[in-house]
Amino acid sequence: MILAAAVLSGMPARADDLEYSTLDLHGFERAYVSGGLAVSGYDRVREAVPVGSDVANAVAILRHAGAHCQSPKPQRNSINCFYSELLSIDDYVNTYSTWDIHLDLDGGKVSTVSVERTTRQHS
């Protein structure tokens, strides 16, 4: 019950309920992308949410890191999460980056983790 409430709120009920990694999606733009190392960011997500992780814990870790995720439900065989950030604002075009994280699920566990970073511009 406590874990369900924590997952639905996106935050843990108690600090010792879940172990959070130091995953910080906001920091990826500076730490990885500015240095041309987006793939290292992908690896960092996979380290924080390894294959075999409990679905509820995986979602809680990603939410704690700043991602927006679908709620875990028993009938789902995948969960999508994303983190989006405004990179630049100018007079004509705003540029955004988005980190899309896709979790395939099997029996309440994460079976694969896919990560992709994209950028888009809006005028």
The helix content is 25-40%
How would you sum up the major sheet? 4 strands, antiparallel
Report how far the terminal alpha carbons are from each other. 45 Å
Number of strands: 4
Structural class: alpha+beta
Question: Which percent range describes the beta-strand content?
Answer: 25-35%
Outline the low-pLDDT stretches.
1-17
The largest sheet has its strands arranged as 1-2-3-4
Question: What is the N-to-C succession of helices and strands?
Answer: HHHHEEEE
Which word captures the global form?
Answer: elongated
Total helical elements: 4
Query: How large, in whole angstroms, is the Cα Rg?
Result: 15 Å
Quaternary state, please?
single chain
Question: Mean pLDDT across all residues, rounded?
Answer: 81
Quick structural summary:
This protein has 123 residues and is α+β, with helices and mostly antiparallel strands. The protein contains four helices and four strands, in the order ααααββββ.
